[in-house]
Amino acid sequence: MKTVGLIVEYNPFHNGHLLHLERSLRVSGADASVAVMSGPFTQRGEPALLSKRARAEMALAAGVDLVLELPVLYALQPAEWFAFGGASLLDATGVVSSLCFGSESGEIAPLEELASRMQGGESPAMREALKQALAEGLSFPAAYAKAASGQGGGDSAAAAALLGNPNDMLGLHYVLALRRLASGITPLAVRREQAGYHDAGLPAGGSIASATAVRAALARGEGGPGEAAPYLPPSSLAVLRREALAGRMLADGWEALAQPLLTALITRSPEELALVPGMDEGLEHRIAAALPRLPVPGTEALLSAIKTKRYTRTRLQRLLAHALLNHRGPLFGRDSLARGPRYIRVLGFSPKGRQLLKTMKKTAKLPVVVRAADFDHPQLGLDIRAAAVHASAFPSPGIREMYADYYAPPVTEF
Amino acid sequence: MKTVGLIVEYNPFHNGHLLHLERSLRVSGADASVAVMSGPFTQRGEPALLSKRARAEMALAAGVDLVLELPVLYALQPAEWFAFGGASLLDATGVVSSLCFGSESGEIAPLEELASRMQGGESPAMREALKQALAEGLSFPAAYAKAASGQGGGDSAAAAALLGNPNDMLGLHYVLALRRLASGITPLAVRREQAGYHDAGLPAGGSIASATAVRAALARGEGGPGEAAPYLPPSSLAVLRREALAGRMLADGWEALAQPLLTALITRSPEELALVPGMDEGLEHRIAAALPRLPVPGTEALLSAIKTKRYTRTRLQRLLAHALLNHRGPLFGRDSLARGPRYIRVLGFSPKGRQLLKTMKKTAKLPVVVRAADFDHPQLGLDIRAAAVHASAFPSPGIREMYADYYAPPVTEF
C-alpha cells in the first residue's frame, strides 16, 4: 500500500481538511493515509475543542486510515520542533512515502531551495542572525527569511513573502525535518483553498471556513453546531453533536481553564515561573505584576495584559499551557527535543489502518503504543497528564474521560 | 486597657463565638479583645466560607476590638504550630494579658500539669514515643497523652480523656506555646456550651450550633442563610447575606477548588508531590494511583479514596491545601516554624482597637502591617497567594476580591 502522511490538528475536522485529505491522496497517488495529530493542546497553545479521541474519530470517519498522536512535548512548540516531531513519527512508521502539507503557495521548490541554503537546519549562527533581525524590528517571518537567506545569499524578500504564510513556514520545517532525519519521505505541497489560516469570518455561501472561524461559530452556537454546520462534513457534525450533548465540548477554550491556570501562576514565585519553557526576558515578572491588575480573572484578560510586540499571542498561549501543565526541566530542552518522539501512539485506525499497523510490526523504528497503560515513558506521561487536565475543564467532566488514555482502546468504530 | 486575646477561625462567626467572647471578657476582666484569626484556609485544611475580610467584619460587629491574621503558614498546621503561631502573635502585640480559649473541660489545671510534665514542649524523645504509640494502634489523642505523660509519669488515662477533646488539645498547646515564649500572658480555659466541635446537626430550639453544622446548613440554603439563621447573630447574618448575594460565599467549600486542586496533583510527578509539607510514608504514590480511579473528579471523592487510619481527614485536607497552594521548601520546616510569625497583620479594628494599635506602636515586638502592599516577607507572600486562590473559587470571582490584600484597607466600618 502506498501511504501518504499528514500532520494535522483537526480542531475540529472540517470541509477544508476533507479537501486536503482528498488532494493529498490524489497528488501522492497513495491508497492509504496516516495523520499525526496534536493531542489536547494545539500548536497555537490552545486547549482543543474536543478530546483527541473524538477528533481521531472525525478523521477516521472522513477517510483517514491511521491517526497517531503528536506528543504534547512537540505539539506545544514553535514550527521547528512541531514539524520535527510530526515528521519523525511519520518517518518512524516505516510505511509512509510522502508528506503532504497544505500551503498558501502550493509550491515546494522555493521551500526546498531555502532549506538547501539553510544547510539542513537552524544553525547557531542563523539563530543569532534571527535574534538580530528581530531586534532590528523586523516581523518574525521577515526576520526568519533574512536570517535563513543570509547563510547562502538568495532572494530574502521573496523568502520573506513566502514565510509570511504560516503554512509555508511549517512546510519549510517539514522539508528541513525530513532532511535532518535523512528520511525517504517526499514532501509535497498542496495548495490550500480559500480561507486563510487565521480567518475569523465564515464565508457566505461557501463550504470551507478556517478552523478558527468554525470554533468561533461553535462558541456562539449554545452547545450545538449552529452556524458552523455548513462547514463540517456530516460525520464531524455527528461526533460534535454527541460530544456537545455529553458535556465534552470546550466551546470557551482557555476560559474554562482560567481557574487552574491562574492558580498555577499565582502560586509560583517569579523564580519558579522562570523555569517554564519559553519564559524569557523577564516575562515572569511581567506576569507576576499583571495578575493583581487584571480587569477580570480570565485567560483572555491575562493574555491582553502581558502581550507585547516581542511576544506573539501564539507564543504566550504555549507558555501558559506549559505553566498550566507544570512543564519544566531538561525534557523540554533542545537536546531532548532533538532526540524526537520515543514512541508511536495509535489513537485510532480503519480496516486499512489495521493493515498498516501489521506492516509496522516489521517496519516501525519506534515502539507502537496501542494502550497507554502498557507503556512507560516521560513523554507519554506528559500526554496522559495533558489529557486529564484538558478534560477536567469540560462542562461535565468525568474521570473516565480525563483518563481515557488508560480506559479507552483506540478508535476503530466510526 | 486590660486586653484579652483569642485564637479563632470564625468560619463563620456564630452565637457560640459570641458567648465565648462575652465569657472571655468576663473571666479575664478585660475591657478589650484581640482575635488572631486564620485567613482563607482553616486549621482543618478547609477553604473558609467567606473572605477573611468578611469574617473580620463579623467579629468586629460582634464586639471584637482588633482582628489579626494568623499567617497561612501557621493556620495550616497541626495543633502544636497553629497554637504557637497564634500565641506568638498575641504575645508580640505587647498589649494582651490573657489568652482565653474555649475547651470541653473548662479546666486549666490539668493542662498546666501536663505541660509541666512535657517540660515545655514536644521533645524528640516524646515524638518518638508518640510514633510508637500510634504504631501500636492507639488513637492520636490516646497516643499523644501516653507519650506526653510518659516523660514524667502521671495519669495517662485521664490525660487521654482530656486530650480526646479537640479544644483541650489546642488548649494544651496554647499553654505550651506561652511557656516556650516565656510570655507574660495567662492562659484561661472557658467552658464551651452545648455543641461539640464537629457536631453536624443543628440543635432544635437552641441558638448555639457548631460551625460545621452552620456551614452545612448554609450549603443547603441555596445562597441564603436558610436554617442557619437562628444560630448566627444579626450582624453575622447581614454580612453573610451581602457576601452571598455578591457571589463571595464558598458554600461548597473544597469542591469549588476541585479543578485547580486536581490540576495541581495531576501535573506533578510523585517525586514532586513528595515535596508537599506533610506528604509522608509514600502518600504521594497513593494519591497518584487514586486519581485515575476516582468515581468523579471532586475533592470529596479524592479524600475518600486516599483516607486511611493513619491519615485523618484533617491531615489530608491540610496536605491538599498545601499542594493546591504549591507550598514547599524550608519555609515549612520546623526551624522556620519555630521562628514564629514575622509580622502582625491587621485585618480590622474598632475605635478601641485603634487605641490598642496606638499602644502597640510602643509595645509590639514585630512590625505591624496595616497595608500588605507596604510590607514584603515570604510569609506574607503566602498569605496574599492563598487569598487570591481562595477567592478565585467564589461563584462570582473578581480580581479586587482576590487581591483585596493589596486593594482594601483594614475593616473599620461594621
Automatic annotation (TrEMBL), chains A, B:
HAMAP family: TmcAL. InterPro entries: Rossmann-like_a/b/a_fold, tRNA(Met)_cyd_acetate_ligase. Signal peptide: none annotated. ATP binds at residues 7-20, 102, 167, 192. This is tRNA(Met) cytidine acetate ligase. It comes from Saccharibacillus alkalitolerans. It is found in: Cytoplasm. Belongs to the TmcAL family. Its EC number is 6.3.4.-. The keyword Metal-binding does not apply. Catalyzes the formation of N(4)-acetylcytidine (ac(4)C) at the wobble position of elongator tRNA(Met), using acetate and ATP as substrates. First activates an acetate ion to form acetyladenylate (Ac-AMP) and then transfers the acetyl group to tRNA to form ac(4)C34. The gene is tmcAL. It is an enzyme of class 6 (ligase). PANTHER family: TRNA(MET) CYTIDINE ACETATE LIGASE. It holds the Pfam family HIGH_NTase1. It catalyses: cytidine(34) in elongator tRNA(Met) + acetate + ATP = N(4)-acetylcytidine(34) in elongator tRNA(Met) + AMP + diphosphate. Keywords: ATP-binding, Cytoplasm, Ligase, Nucleotide-binding, RNA-binding, tRNA processing, tRNA-binding.
